[in-house]
């Protein structure tokens, strides 16, 4: 079954090529015919001029008869006249058409002769005339005739060759058009079917590579799109599964302990404990909803980043002072470095959220009497902010997924510590919103290093 696009493209190619071929054949045929007729006329004129030379060299009866005898055996005819155009001799019987040509009054015939009749399509003869002189005076004319039947026969053979060439060209054209249209439309049809599958939610699309042209690029783009959509679908499903699980846990605690707290046979102390648990779970739920709200705004680029020129060393020092009591409470050390004068364009409130989140992780996952360091420096033409702790670290296999939403290395421990699994996702989104990049290096039981790369503010 021929597809619509294949048929349309094939017909379009066919008709365009047919028009081009017809124009080319017409021009070529016309040029060849005119050239061939012109060759016959010039040959006839040259033959007449040759007879004139013979007559001028030796004008006598023998020469006249000799010329007539030569043309009798040729496919041309000759008529020799005097200067009054009275016929002296001819190579064959003169018919009425030849008589008409000979009887035409001649004026100013050049020395090299003149073509008298060139209308080969509708006249029986083509004709030329060459004047000859004897003793320096005009003595007469040599008329040459050639039947147009011979020319038409040549043209007919030429037409046959052209018809054969046209038929062969047509056959080759049809085969070529079918092949080209099929070759061009096959990948387009495959891409159409692939996009139909994508529109129906089937992302198992794999298109073959097709070179480095535009079709190849389009094919690869559709394949990449299918993979991205598949990944997004999986991420969405995983996200919905994770969020339903994360929401279910605190809601279950809240509902369960609320039911217990409503009982009349429990003490006020027990009721207070249950209410505290409900409050804590509500706080976790509120934090999670806030994180989800922030991520949603980042996803739709609705998160406002108000960039301000900030001197980084003093900015980091202020944050360290704010976080120091939390480190001291857990008997941990916090060191800040960055004596260099470095200025960056950041949103102070949003970037503080980044640093506090990372420092808070260091508190949660580090043991007492360990050290956490934060410093800023110039490196490789950019500004590098480093946060290093001496905590439990992250297994190598978990590092590629650490910034994924709801991803936890140790789910049970994270939940006990109050984490939502969204903090590092928000950190990554906020860093990228500032035009920066974040990297992580970690080793189990040896601590974790976060690296944030930013552009330095130029004066």
TrEMBL record:
SUPFAM superfamilies: ATPase domain of HSP90 chaperone/DNA topoisomerase II/histidine kinase, HAMP domain-like, Homodimeric domain of signal transducing histidine kinase. It comes from the Bacteria. It is a multi-pass membrane protein. The keyword Transmembrane applies. The chain crosses the membrane at residues 12-32, 162-184. Its main location: membrane. This is histidine kinase.
